[in-house]
Amino acid sequence: MTSSFFPPQRTLMGPGPSDVSPRVLGALSRPTIGHLDPLFVQLMDEIKVLLQYAFQTGNALTLPISAPGSAGMEACFVNLVSPGDTVIVCQNGVFGGRMRENVERCGATAVMVEDNWGEPVSVDKVAAAFAEHPQAKTLAFVHAETSTGVRSDAQALCALAREHGALSIVDAVTSLGGIPLKVDEWGADAVYSGTQKCLSCVPGISPITFSPRAVERIQQRQHKVQSWFLDMQLVMGYWGGDSKRAYHHTAPVNDLYALHESLVMLQEEGLENAFARHLRNHQALVAGLEAMGLSMAVAAAHRLPQLNAVNIPAGVDDAAVRSALLSDFDLEIGAGLGALAGKTWRIGLMGYASNERNVLSCLTALEAVLARQGADIRTGAALNAAAAVFNAG
């Protein structure tokens, strides 16, 4: 007979999911109520306000999609892109490629702006693409590229889109709650994220927000949205307005309890404090890694503090290191993806997992495993280097 499943207590320092706060796990266990219960509708309204704070927006159409970040991505594309449209898509990692796939599945043409993996999106290349394709109606790019640990200049890219009369679609899956994301100030039109990264929540929900310009395009569509479930004109009937909510789907009630709790925690800490915490822990981790003799894969000016791409030393067995960290230390770090597979590790410091204990534990475990493999590293220096950063802060 199959028995109940009891997972081990891992420390999740990969590209996601990240460690979930005990407060959030506690919220999951609260009694389930109906998704049209007046008290749940009240909770929905609070979640919208809390998401507006996290996104730094007053957008009325701000809500959590009842599915992971990939569904948030698809919701943005299927609602804003129509057959025959031209969309400029920026790719400097895995997730720009997924944007292209969405554009093509909408029957539109993707004009690709490609940059090296490990480098930010080139604003100049995007400007040139708009000059060459003035008919482009949308610009799509990744703010925080999870596969490489690179931050692109979302403010400049959104400004370019507006300058050319185009809407912007922004992947903020790894940035929301970890680095500044100013939707209204930057003029971003459609932004999607995920709960399992810097929000310290369980996977399975995708916060999204649409500007009034984006809502106008949705309302003026000449073709039905190809996804019934993600059609915002239908979803708005459940999540939007002051009138009676129209049934659309059974919301994941307990998951939304968890999201609400995670957003309350973010509000309690304050966005600026959350950003400063992620940055300080990142700086300490980098100091320790470099003292050990490892190098970072991304230039300092463009690094994500919440997702650290580290070059794998020559002669080191990538998979063996990650396996040993998991089996011997219950510590998960991520492998490189795509062009960076076997070349980098991705060490996450996201949300609840971004703390001093995890930084020091990760450095200790990584040093032990690498020394056991005979890697050419400096031992005994990492913790002191990281501690110096913490003591200075």
Automatic annotation (TrEMBL):
**What cofactors does the UniProt entry give for this protein?**
pyridoxal 5'-phosphate
A Pfam family reported for this protein in Swiss-Prot or TrEMBL = Aminotran_5
Entry annotated with the keyword Transferase: yes
Q: Which residues carry this modification: N6-(pyridoxal phosphate)lysine?
A: K197
Q: Which residues bind substrate?
A: R346
Outline the extent of the Aminotransferase class V domain: 41-337
Q: Which domain of life is it from?
A: Bacteria
> What does the entry give for GO biological process?
glycine biosynthetic process, by transamination of glyoxylate
Q: Which UniProt keywords apply?
A: Aminotransferase, Pyridoxal phosphate, Transferase
The family database entries (PANTHER family) matched by this protein are listed as: ALANINE--GLYOXYLATE AMINOTRANSFERASE, AMINOTRANSFERASE CLASS V
Tell me its family: Belongs to the class-V pyridoxal-phosphate-dependent aminotransferase family.
From the Swiss-Prot or TrEMBL record, give the protein name. Alanine--glyoxylate aminotransferase family protein
